[in-house]
Amino acid sequence: MSLAFSAPAKIILFGEHAVVYGQPAIAVPVSSLRVRAVVHPAASAGILIRARDLGQEIRVLDAADPNEQSPLAWIAAYTARALEQPALSGEIDLKSDIPLASGLGSGAAISAVLVRSVAALGGVRLEDQAVNELVYQSEKIYHGNPSGVDNTVVVFERGLYFRRNYPHSFMTMRSNYRILIADTGIRASTKIAVDGVRRLFEQDRDHIEPVIQEIGIISAEARELLESQTGQHPALGALMSRNHALLQMLQVSSPELDQLVDAAQNAGAFGAKLSGGGMGGNMIALVDEAHIVPVSEALKQAGAVRVIHTTVGEN
Ligand code: PMV
Q1: Cβ distance 270 to 236 under 8 Å?
Q2: What distance in angstroms lies between residue 115's CA and the mean position of ligand 1's atoms?
Q3: Distance (Å) from CA 270 to ligand 1 centroid
Q4: Residue 10 CB-half CA count within 13 A
Q5: What is the pLDDT along the chain (315 residues), one digit of tens a residue?
Q6: Ligand 1 pocket: which of 13, 141, 150, 250 to mutate (most atoms <8 Å of CB)?
Q7: Is residue 158 within 8 Å of 27, Cβ to Cβ?
Q8: Closest CA to 106 of 205, 183, 200
Q9: Does residue 280 have its Cβ closer than 6 Å to ligand 1?
Q10: Which residues contact 168 (CB under 8 A, 6 or more apart)?
Q11: What is this structure's pTM?
């Protein structure tokens, strides 16, 4: 018998980078983009992970060996050790439609699915919080110093108001928000972006600290608007655009991202910003129904390699 698991992509609506410094961030799942796994028990030795989109086929023979090099093998082995079942065997087929290294949380989604798959091979059904803790460990490999926002939104698949070292709190949105997600086509390392902000922070703390604090204030204001009865789309859009300007000050935007943000605003979006680590990857724009097509067209004209429409809200 085979079992199936999946996990969604995510977007950060407000607060990326500042969240690493203890400020709040808001993230939501994108359920239409997913990583899926099919798990088959097998008599062969070890765990075989087939990840065709990543061009990888990895066999984890000895989960007790902590020196696994590939991140996929590492998280599988780490999970097996955490379950105290280092001698698991079986096959995991992974498929993903989340683009890699583009601010959509592909690493966290792949890890979430792998943790659940390995646990299934061990006959264990883990609670979401236990999955979340294991996935956070794998995020450390991708990022170095992750805030924990990516793994939490992807594992629980719910809109999240997240503050590092605080209990996470899920959002109750009372309106729907149409978001366009546009890809610059440029892959960028979150770790390099996070390290760059750290350098800037250390060199010029007097200027950078207020920027980080203002981003936190924006996340808090955005939460109130998102949870209000009436939605307040124009005010939210203005907060998004201000958040983008502050991310520019943290030097994590790029000419391509700025071009897409400008194009969305000029075509009638309520607001727009980069989403995730930045320096490439994706941006998001808040639009109303009438502007879905014109803003999508403007984004493509301005260089987006792909535009996705998603609705977040009323859960
Ligand atoms: O680039 P992504 O999707 O992994 O998002 C990273 C979000 C940051 O705030 C930049 C880093 C973090 O650990 O929260």
Answers
A1: yes
A2: 20
A3: 24
A4: 31
A5: 789 999 999 999 999 999 999 999 999 999 999 999 999 988 878 999 999 888 888 888 766 665 656 889 989 999 999 999 888 999 999 999 998 878 899 999 999 999 999 999 999 999 999 999 999 998 888 777 899 999 999 999 999 999 999 998 999 998 899 999 999 999 999 999 999 999 999 999 999 999 999 999 999 999 999 999 886 899 999 999 999 999 999 999 999 999 999 999 999 999 999 999 999 999 999 999 999 999 999 999 999 999 999 998 875
A6: 150
A7: no
A8: 183
A9: no
A10: 152, 156, 160, 161, 162
A11: 0.94
Q: How far is the CA of 28 from the centre of ligand 1 (A)?
A: 13
> How long, in residues, is the chain?
315
Tokens read off for 200:
């800037």
CA 175, CA 186: separation in Å to the nearest integer? 32
Distance 150 CA to ligand 1 centre (A): 7
Three-class secondary structure assignment of 246-282: HHHHCCCCCHHHHHHHHHHHHCCCCEEEECCCCCCCE
**What's phi and psi for 260, nearest 5 deg?**
-70, -40
Ligand 1 contact, 277 CB (< 6 A): yes
Ligand 1 binding pocket includes 105 (Cβ within 6 Å): yes
